[in-house]
Amino acid sequence: MLVLGVAGLGLAVVLFVGGGPLLHAASAFAAGAALLWCAHALRVRDSLIHDLTAERIVLQASRQQIDSVSRAKSDFIANISHEIRTPLAGVLGTTALLAETPLNDEQRAYLTAIRGAAEGLMALLGDILDMSKIEAGHLTFERSPFDLRKLAEDVIGMFGYVTRDKGLVLRLTYAEGAARVFFGDPLRIRQVLTNLVSNAVKFTAAGEVRIEIRVGPTLHDEATVELRVQDTGIGITAEQLPRIFDSFVQADASTTRRFGGTGLGLAICRALVRGMGGSLDVESLPGSGSTFTAAVPLTVASEHDLSEAPGASVTGMRRLKIVLADDNRINRTVVLALLERAGHTVIPVENGLAAVAAVEDHRPDIVFMDCQMPIMDGYEATTRLRETGCTVPIIALTANARADDRDRCLAAGMTDYLTKPIRPEDLHLALQRHAIAPTPPEPASDSASAAQ
Ligand code: ADP
């Protein structure tokens, strides 16, 4: 094109100088100039494309670098939390056992302080781990059937002792006739509700904390479920309101001193709710109280879906035969004592190979299986048991808290997963879910359970 352009201009000059027709010379000049301009434009375009490609390569390289740094940070946090969780397992478990022995008032007060500090540390570890997952974009959600009303009742049950101490009324309202079984991520929904109720209880000195669950109209099996947590506490000022969902933000500087906390809870809740396709909002008046509303779209499920699912909601308690595999003596002693104290028969073993033999010999109702053990680890032991057709529920006991550890446990054939430190409530829930005989579900009705 460049050559043609130059030729065009040359021809124009020849025609002009040679006295050719002026119109022909002008045409040749115009054509030559246009061709030269096009050649220039193409050169500019090529150089732009070249620049853009180079920039894209640089951007891709930077993104890969950022991703790998973020993965490294995420792994580092998970590893550190693992290292801290393991000794904490011992502290919390032994504290739980000590609390059940005869103690004088002074000793009990010290013990309560130890347990409070250790639980605070655990909660902080959990929050930091969640935040790092959110930041790394690693948040994933389960889809399993669960009973929403039962979940809310469980959450209320967790706060019974605090609200009794503070003289608060804790109330659950579930609309009569509304669907109660849904497909969704029960653990995440529980986490959000627990956090909102925990804040409401923390920031309310007198009056009531009310959980209200509303189920919107169902369209193509989808319904928006509203979880409202209303309190009569200190409230939040209009200036503070827009900031409380930011990480590490507390309404005012004195909050940490007076109530503790890290300012991560609401940021995590909002990220979780948004990850489920919903929204989390707040209305509040200082001195009158706050109302937090999480609206989450869920798929309506049936009681049948629930009973088909492994780990379906169950009630009641019976004595169980349990195989407990853990190579760590302290952890084994702690869990064994908790289970025996609840009236169960426990067969303790120190490695996966012994666990396989114990399951074959004793035909237990449930197995608690540590993952990392010498001779044979928990994953291999589980795979072996499943290969022989064994269907007993196997619950992983592990200090690893990353999502891929959970996936690894389930892929090996484990039924569920408990993260150390194992608390009595965790064990009790796992037993209820996986080993106690299911009872027919109660008919849905309006409920107002007060924990006081
Ligand atoms: P944390 O409670 O750990 O400080 P959150 O992210 O859960 O962190 O809450 C952030 C801040 O929002 C709290 O420090 C508090 O100032 C305010 N807040 C949250 N819930 C309530 C509530 N129910 N009543 C009054 N203030 C609240």
Describe the protein's architecture and organization.
The chain has 452 residues and is of the alpha/beta class. Helices cover 53% and strands 17% of the residues. The strands form 2 sheets. Strands 1, 2, 3, 4, 5, 6, 7 and 13 form an 8-stranded mixed beta sheet that branches. Strands 9-8-10-11-12 form a 5-stranded parallel beta sheet, sandwiched between helices. Helix 11 links the parallel strand 10 and strand 11. Helix 1 packs antiparallel against helix 2 and helix 5 packs antiparallel against helix 7. The radius of gyration is 32 Å and the shape is elongated. 32% of the residues are buried. It binds adenosine-5'-diphosphate (ADP). The site of adenosine-5'-diphosphate has 20 residues, from helix 5 and helix 7.
Quick take:
The chain is an alpha/beta fold and 452 residues long. The chain has 13 helices and 13 strands. The structure holds adenosine-5'-diphosphate.
Average residue-wise pLDDT: 82
Helix content: 40-55%
The helix/strand class is alpha/beta
Strand content: 15-25%
Keywords:
13 strands; 8-stranded mixed beta sheet; 452 residues; elongated; binds adenosine-5'-diphosphate; 5-stranded parallel beta sheet
